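README: folding subset

This subset contains proteins for which both the sequence and a predicted structure token string are available. Records are stored as plain text. Below is the entry for Major facilitator superfamily (MFS) profile domain-containing protein (314 residues), shown exactly as it appears on disk.
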Amino acid sequence: MLALLSLIWFSHLCKNVDRIENRRPVIGGFVAKDLGWRWVFWIMAIFKGILTIVTFFFLTESHHPTIQRKRAKDTDMVLNKEVPKVGQVLFRALMRPMRMLIHSPIVTGLSLYLALIYGYLYLLFTTFSTVFTEQYGFGIDILGLAFLGVEIGCIAALAVLSWLSDWLQDRLTKKYGESKPEYRLLPIVLGIPLLPIGLFVYGWTVEYEVHWIVPIIFTGFSGAGLIFSFLSTQIYMIDAFTTYAVSALAATSVIRSIVGGCLPISGLPLYSDLGYGWGNSLLGFVAIVVSIAPLLFWRYGEALRKKYDVQFDE
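--- output ---
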């Protein structure tokens, strides 16, 4: 979420916070060895608590209808809209994402796509400990260093994407005379090859116990591919669904959280049956197949948005 906010509101601040968060796996091993595993969770709880307090006091309102009502109240204006009751707001907030998931092919398709790549990320994270201890003899203290490749890849992709997304949007808008949300999907073209390349090389170099730096470097390729795909898709949904963007993102969050929690369970059995080489190759082949989804929405997204209008009245 911090990475997404960095592209929308205050990139110079959130990028730094995101880097701090990404270093948690790196320092986690040293904390667990010196202070005990419980302190890994205590440190995260303290950090999140501070961040929650800072967010509560300093993050400004971004929901346009709420801002409009507040301005009207401050200036004694009367809006021709009835203020909904709390129960109505909660019911709509719960039901609208599900309705969008059912009625919008864009939300459904991209939710499944994001769920898969999100699941890949956590499959890698949950198997790093086994892979690098068994294949390379990493101890608990330095095990977190295996996450540096993903971290560096994510940071590099975030730096490129924060500039590239707006640059492409402005350039294509000037070229074709109109702004379209689908322009936001173009950076995925960079991410599509990076993810499977990273998985292929990571898997086979681990299989043959090539020097540990090589698989770590190529996990960075996968990390960069994940960021290009993940954030480009979310930014597209924000532009495509405007007022209901939060509901669209909530729908994707539900699906990807389910898959992100379940898919990693298959990681070790997959490697046990197929080995690290073919196991990760299978993941790479699936990634290539599903990558057609965002390309289809780049080509036909505008037509689908018009045909399946989810800007329903409630």
